[in-house]
Design brief:
nine-stranded antiparallel β-sheet; mainly beta; six-stranded antiparallel β-sheet; Beta-galactosidase, Chain A, domain 5; globular; single chain; 287 residues
Length: 287
């Protein structure tokens, strides 16, 4: 486990999955600590796909692509390229196991940088071959909600940077094509477990570059800056009144019911030409 520390802020990162395991400010734990009775994850990395593989897998240039939900990076061992008191860089490259699922040689670098009250997470994807590479990339951090003992999940809300008029995309195993308004010229979603009875809130096309998890009755909050990410997921498990909420910036989304099995037609895939690179990042500010 990699321990990063900057004054009053601490983070733990597991090289398995390059997964954030703890994020504390002044001793207060902000990151969900995992519970098999609801969700054992904490902050999995989503690569090279987001969502489930369709029955029979995707087809690409004669290959059949079958992966676990959200791809293989979240369960893969990353190498530690660099590590200091406040920063670390972890790397995943193709292997025989990955090439059997996903026929592209690649480098996926994930860098963490800790500041006083903040954490930035940066990604770099490199296509190592001459031909094109197709992939999606996303983050899935879960935060304690409530953040303060004595408050309730329902005391919290999500406040986006800008007023939004946007609909949520409904998902069962796959996106259904159904949409319902979730914000109308507003920036605030009041949290209630019933919002998630039919799964995640999936938003495509937000105007905002940031969102804050906060409460009017408690001082602790988390601000996520996700500029550049075109899709955003909000999730907690349905039916269990679990005390966490996931804020998920994505490049890509789940497949839709009835989609073509042609991998090149999967919604939201990024394409890198030979030896090109792609970079993105998000950051967290704690209070």
């Amino acid at each position: 486990m990699i321990h990063l520390k900057y004054d009053n802020t601490d983070a733990l990162i597991d090289p398995v999955g390059a997964e954030l395991k703890s994020l504390k400010l002044g001793g207060r734990e902000y990151l969900w600590q995992g519970d098999p009775s609801s969700w054992s994850g904490q902050s999995p990395q989503l690569f090279p796909v987001i969502g489930m593989t369709p029955e029979g897998g995707w087809q690409y240039e004669g290959n059949t692509l079958v992966m676990e939900n959200h791809g293989f990076a979240r369960k893969s061992l990353f190498s530690v390229v660099e590590s200091s008191n406040t920063d670390c860089l972890l790397r995943l490259e193709e292997s025989d196991a990955s090439l059997a699922q996903y026929p592209f040689p690649f480098i996926l670098d994930i860098a963490y940088s800790l500041t006083d009250g903040g954490l930035s997470v940066s990604y770099r994807v490199e296509n190592k071959q001459e031909g094109d590479m197709l992939f999606s990339l996303g983050a899935h951090p879960g935060f304690n909600c409530p953040l303060v003992q004595g408050s309730r999940f329902e005391d919290y809300y999500l406040e986006f940077e800008k007023d939004e008029t946007i609909s949520r995309r409904w998902k069962e195993d796959f996106l259904t094509g159904k949409k319902d308004p979730v914000l109308t010229d507003s920036r605030r979603i009041e949290l209630d477990h019933s919002l998630f009875d039919k799964g995640a809130i999936i938003l495509s096309g937000l105007q905002s570059d940031s969102v804050v998890l906060k409460s009017d009755t408690a001082s602790a909050s988390v601000r996520m800056n996700f500029a550049g990410f075109p899709d955003f997921g909000i999730w907690t498990i349905a039916g269990k009144n679990a005390p966490y909420i996931c804020l998920e910036p994505w490049f890509g989304v789940d497949s839709s019911e009835g989609d073509s099995r042609d991998f090149e037609e999967k919604e939201g895939l990024l394409r890198l030409q030979g030896h090109e690179e792609f970079s993105c990042s998000y950051s967290l500010a704690l209070s």
